[in-house]
Amino acid sequence: MSLKPVTAVVAYFFVHIAVGAAASDDVGFIYQGFQSSNLSLDGLATVTKNGLLRVTNSTILQTGYAFYPNPINFKATSNSSAFSFSTQFVFAIVPDVPGVTGTGMAFAIAPRRKLAKVPSYLFLGLFDTNTNGNQTNHVFAVELDIYQDQEIEDINDNHVGIDINSMISKASAPASYQANNKSSFDNLTLISGQSMQLWVEYDGVDRRIDVTLAPIEAAKPHTPLLSLKYDLSPIFQQTMYVGFSAVSSPIATGITNFILGWSFRMNGVAQALDLSRLPKLPRIGHKKVSKIFTVGLPLIFVLMLIILTSGVAYYLWRKWKFAEVLEEWELAYGPHRFKYKDLYIATKGFREKELLGEGGFGRVYKGILTTNKVEVAVKKVSHQARQGMREFVAEIISIGRLRNRNLVPFLGYCRRKGELLLVYEFMPNGSLDKFLYNQPKYILNWSQRLRVIKGVASGLFYLHEEWEQVVIHRDVKASNVLLDAELNGRLGDFGLARLYDHGTMPQSTHVAGSLGYLAPEHNRTGRATTSTDVYAFGAFLLEVACGRRPIEPRAEPPENIVLVDWVFSCWKAGNVLQAVDQRLRTEYVKEEAELVLKLGLLCSHIEPKIRPSMRQVLLYLEGSVALPELSSLAMGVSAVGLGPAHPAGFKDITSSFATSIDKSFSLVADSVLSGGR
């Protein structure tokens, strides 16, 4: 006969004796309710008048701790094995309103009575973002969790888990129990507001943790909900505290965590709670209503219904009486007209939080149309009396027929009580200038900038030559170029655009545009042409390539205040690439950057006839046609685009500008550019 089985039995017997003998103090206690208890309470934890331990209430995002006041020996020495222990408690998670979610609570064994420095509803007061998962925590807990967080691998929003130093459970299962007369588990709802029992037991010899759940009326099931083989000796210090931890909900209407009774014992079975002696939970729901209210409330309801019906009828009558007037001449523009009410709702009453910015003629608001959930930009136009409303709307609708992927789509308009509102498609990335100036969060790389330049050039070419009428934009600049979700440049803000038939001369109007982009002849004559748009596009090219505004009053030295001046001086010195935006470092294609800078100088020429058309600009940018060499002699004399091109108010910085054009450069440029015009 082998002696191995006998030896194993004897060893098992002596280990049990050793573990029991090692405990200098087999602590045990029982609370049949918590009236006059000596628990250590912190945060939201308190004892109600009828003896309930309320760990947390509906106060927003605060911790609650309730611990047995004295430390308990869980080991004989710091290096020895952990003792066995057993606990039973009755709890209830009560929602303030049926159906509301929140956070649960945990039974904890920890080296101290206050655990988390910063409350977080994800960690049940056991840890915070800095301590979760640390091996130095020395925390064992059983969580009763009613919130699912994928980051900590929760299985659902109604589960029980065993946590060791982390909220990622070592073992977890949906809240349920197996009655002793059944072979399957029945589900329980932790947040039902009903009382439930929980047993947590640890066998120091077998190194096994058992967690058992049951409703208040059931006997303790023979089969635990969770059973985990795990040695808690490295987790426990020699002395530890036992108690409960929770965090209140982050919303005002949350849940309340109650403990009705608690029993605990070291190295033995915890004394069973007498459930009949436990305090009662507060009433959930409304109290019985007196007969006076059962009779009075229906009468009040009927009266309110009559008042409400009368109010609705009056509202409908007022709406019919003051319906929006639609003039006969507007019928042709029906599909392009929006209802003011729809735009008012879309922009949330044109509130300041929806304000995107201010354009040429008015303020621009972000909105979401309730009919199709489309995001739009709504521009409130300050309409001038110098032009009739009918003609102005006709012009706007004509512009609305423009269809090009490099133009911000115009969707329609609205007119109400003298107000004129223009509706455009919303561009999620806003205007280009936000990516160039004032320390942007994201700096466009060279390829993105070149794509924006080509897009704007394509849009201007469409306006000048491809549509049925010539459209002069009159305000080409970085703040009027909007970026879509893919950072493609789209030309917007047609508030200053003017239409005229192909082959006719545009009418002279008041000078309109932005400082630094106005062509010199526009200042003199007040006449906008495709060539004045090209001049503004030249300033735009330099603006994007250099990451500078056309006019920088604070630039040092003073001769660098005007961007085109500075780029010209760099070109003249034989190092035009010095003008490229320093934030790009060397991460750009030198040939492309040189082309853009030289093309910017050519478009900014003081003589309109020398400027290329947008058709030629596109050919240069695509490399289909080589950019003409800028003669050192000609450019040195003329200082391309400078002199009278500066706006009024900057006369003191124009001393470096020449006012004449070298005839040799004119002949060269005319001969090169004549083929594309």
UniProtKB/TrEMBL annotation:
ATP binds at K380. Residues 1-22 form the signal peptide. The keyword Transmembrane applies. GO terms for biological process: defense response; response to other organism. The chain crosses the membrane at residues 240-260, 292-317. It is an enzyme of class 2 (transferase). Pfam families: Lectin_legB, PK_Tyr_Ser-Thr. It catalyses: L-threonyl-[protein] + ATP = O-phospho-L-threonyl-[protein] + ADP + H(+); L-seryl-[protein] + ATP = O-phospho-L-seryl-[protein] + ADP + H(+). Its EC number is 2.7.11.1. It is found in: Membrane. GO terms for molecular function: ATP binding; carbohydrate binding; protein serine/threonine kinase activity. GO terms for cellular component: membrane. The keyword Amino-acid biosynthesis does not apply. Keywords: ATP-binding, Glycoprotein, Kinase, Lectin, Membrane, Nucleotide-binding, Receptor, Serine/threonine-protein kinase, Signal, Transferase, Transmembrane, Transmembrane helix. It is a single-pass type I membrane protein. Residues 350-630 form the Protein kinase domain. In the C-terminal section; belongs to the protein kinase superfamily. Ser/Thr protein kinase family. This is non-specific serine/threonine protein kinase. It comes from Coffea canephora (Robusta coffee).
